[in-house]
Write a structure and sequence with these properties.
Layout (H helix, E strand, L loop, with lengths): L1 E6 L3 H9 L8 E7 L2 H11 L3 E5 L7 H9 L7 E6 L4 H9 L4 E4 L4 H44 L6 H10 L9 E8 L9 H16 L7 E7 L2 E7 L5 H6 L2 H18 L3 E5 L9 H13 L1 H4 L4 E3 L15 H12 L3 H17 L5 H19 L3 H8 L5 H6 L4 H38 L6 H8 L3 H12 L3 H19 L4 H7 L5 H12 L3 H11 L1
Parallel strand pairs: 1-2, 1-3, 3-4, 4-5, 9-10
Antiparallel strand pairs: 6-8, 6-9, 7-8
Length: 536
């Protein structure tokens, strides 16, 4: 709705203006009235109407006094219609100077007033549309500016006219002298439950703070991804001579950023920076150098600043785990030799750490291939893997989150350690199953923990300890349970005498059998037999 304020010192005129036309049908709402210019000014500040209809001559303050006062407000953008009983040139001239929307003579013609109101309503709606566009543009400018810089860093081709136009739009002054590109990234972003957006905001705020410091270098910043920011640092200021002979000033500035971020968040960041470059065409190359420098933190550690010059230039060197080592690891897993498997992995990672020409992604590819082989060898299905590790294991996804060699090494050790632990648990269960099967088959003979352990090639102590741990009862308790269950079945069949049942379930002494039977079931085998006879 378009809001309207009516100003006139005559009550009947105000009432007529309000009631003569069905304003609501045309999208207008009368939100207030005033009887003089001073009151109207106060009502305007309170209501901020879109259109003001005001008489030109009123007691105390006139309509022209009101307009002049309103025009002095910095945010005044309402439309004004002047009503006058005088076709006076001076009034018309003054109204034109104030750029009023319409000057209507009394007596007021409804058609003329409504026409003027609808015209000014369109003007207000167009203003709102433009204001909304401008507001959206202002809100999107930071994102658009970032996208423009991101395209520059990524080497996307642009027409020169478009490039210059966007630089003017975003108030970006691209370097005409030498510059350096810096990649900054948060260390250890592996826990998806962390508030990564907050950490990224902290990083942006840290850069804004450091930009205002006395020793700050001039730079453009661009977000490439969450917690990964790129700076284009200018060298063409008064500090350039120092930077040309030594990069200590740049290092000091990056160190300040790093220390400030850690002080605020208790988290660390690492940075890698390029060699000096000139010209817009080299921005992408400089960005790639900064990324390679940052990636090298995998070998020098987190919380570091890496110069591209110090990074070995022969990257992606061939990296493999020898086939014989892979076979030894697989054999160690099959035969429960954890120490052998860990020794092979430790030797491999020692070689990786000494070979700084190997990049992190090559290492991840090799470890991924080996891990998939181990998981396929050891586990039957995905559900079993999830149960053992307490989470779904997708090696490629987990490796992608790791930011340095040490993290990859620790991840591999966790996988292998739990694999061996799971194998041990599985072996225990298999032993217990075999013991149960032997008891189920051999309960009728003289069976002891020692005789079963000898058949399984394990110690009797380990057998008894393992069985109690897995079953919650001793070997002898389980043996007795099975024997008595079998005895009950035979007695209830009515085909056997008590001593025949005792011998059949492994008891040579029928009196001892009766004692054990009563102890387990609560009644004697004879009573059990008589009960079955009575039922028949």
């Amino acid at each position: 709705m378009t809001t309207v304020l009516i100003v006139d010192d005559e009550y009947l005129t105000r009432r007529g203006l309000r009631e003569t036309i069905a304003w609501g049908e045309y999208g207008f709402e009368i939100v207030g009235e005033a009887s003089n210019g001073n009151d109207a000014y106060e009502r305007y500040l309170e209501l901020r109407p879109d259109i003001i209809i005001t008489d030109v001559r009123m007691k105390r303050a006139t309509g022209l006094d009101l307009i002049q006062k309103l025009k002095n407000l910095p945010d005044f953008d309402s439309e004004v219609i002047i009503l006058s009983a005088y076709d006076d040139f001076e009034y018309v001239k003054k109204a034109l100077e104030f750029h009023v929307g319409a000057y209507i003579l009394k007596p007021i013609q409804e058609k003329e007033l409504l026409s003027a109101m609808l015209r000014l309503q369109s003007v207000q709606q167009e203003k709102r549309r433009k204001d909304h566009l401008v507001e959206n543009m202002v809100q999107q400018l930071p994102m658009m500016r970032n996208d423009f810089l991101k395209a520059l860093f990524e080497g996307k081709q642009m027409q020169e006219d478009d490039l210059l136009q966007q630089c003017r739009l975003f108030e970006i002054s691209l370097p005409t002298e030498e510059y350096t590109v810096v990649s900054i990234k948060l260390d250890h972003v592996v826990n998806t439950t962390e508030n990564i957006k907050q950490l990224h905001q902290d990083l942006e705020e840290t850069l804004s703070y450091c930009k205002e410091l006395p020793n700050a270098l001039k730079f453009l910043s661009c977000t490439m991804a969450e917690c990964h920011v790129v700076l284009l640092v200018y060298h063409h200021d008064d500090n350039y001579k120092l930077l040309q002979s030594s990069l200590s000033l740049l290092n000091d500035f990056l160190l300040t950023i790093k220390e400030q971020f850690e002080a605020v968040t208790s988290r660390t960041i690492s940075a890698g920076y390029s060699m000096g470059h000139r010209g817009i065409s080299e921005i992408h190359e400089a960005y790639e150098e900064s990324k390679r420098a940052l990636a090298h933190k995998s070998f020098v550690g987190d919380n570091t600043i890496v110069d591209y010059i110090s990074v070995p230039k022969v990257m992606n060197a061939a990296l493999v785990i020898p086939n014989e080592d892979i076979e030894r690891i697989l054999d160690a897993v099959r035969n429960d030799r954890y120490a052998d498997a860990k020794e092979i992995l430790e030797n491999f990672f020692d070689k990786v750490k000494k070979n700084s020409a190997v990049d992190l992604e090559s290492l991840k590819d090799v470890i991924l291939e080996m891990t998939v082989m181990l998981l396929r060898l050891h586990f039957k299905n995905v559900e079993e893997i999830n149960e053992i590790y307490g989470r779904p294991i997708v090696p490629s996804n987990e490796l992608r989150k790791l930011g340095n060699v040490e993290a990859v090494e620790h991840w591999v050790y966790e996988i292998v350690e739990k694999m061996f632990a799971a194998k041990g648990e599985r072996d225990k269960r298999n032993y217990v199953i075999r013991i149960q099967e032997m008891i189920d088959r051999q309960y009728s003979i003289s069976l002891t923990a020692e005789s079963v352990a000898e058949q399984l090639h394990i110690s009797s102590y380990y057998l008894m300890h393992l069985f109690k741990e897995e079953m919650g009862m001793t070997f002898n308790q389980y043996l007795t349970k099975i024997r008595i269950e079998k005895a009950q079945e035979m007695i209830q069949s009515g085909k056997y005498k008590i001593y025949e049942v005792a011998q059949a379930v492994g008891y040579r002494d029928s009196a001892y059998f009766s004692y054990i039977y009563k102890k387990v079931t609560g009644h004697s085998p004879k009573r059990e037999k008589n009960k079955m006879t009575d039922l028949s």
